[in-house]
Amino acid sequence: METAPIENTTTTQAVSDTQNVFGDQFIGKDGFLKLLITQLQNQDPLDPMKNEEFAAQLAQFSSLEQMQNLNQSFNQMMDLNKVSSTASLIGKEVTYQDQTDGSLVSGQVDRVIIKPDGTYFAISGKEISSEYIKEIGQIAPQVTETAPQI
Length: 150
Description:
The protein is α+β, with helices and mostly antiparallel strands. Among the domains are: 49 residues; 48 residues, SH3 type barrels.
C-alpha cells in the first residue's frame, strides 16, 4: 500500500512561561496601571471582577513598583561605586596602549571622566578609555641626592 506525502503542513510554536509575549518591550508600572484601568472599565457588569482577583492585581502592581524602585536605587549605588573606585586612581601612574602606534605609554592620571559610553582617564592632556589601560601603580618617589654635610 502506497501512502501519499503530506503537503501544506504548518507548525506552531508554543510560548513558554519564560518568554516575553510582548516581544522585546516590557510593561512598566504605568502600562500595568493603564491595563488594569482598561480591564475594570470594560468588564462585564453582570460578572464583575472578584475582589480576590482585583487584590491580586493590585499586589502585582505594588510588587512591580517596588522592584523598579529597588532597581533604580541599585543603579544609583553602582554609579556611586564607579565614581568612588575610579576617583581613587587620580594621581596614580598608569600604563596604556597608545591607539596611534600601539606602543605602551606611561603617565599620571590627572582626572577621571565618566561618560555614557565608558570611563576615561585624562593623562597628559589626552582622554584614554579604560579599556586601553594595561597597568596601574604608585608613582615612584623622586629621590634627590644631597651632598654630605662636612
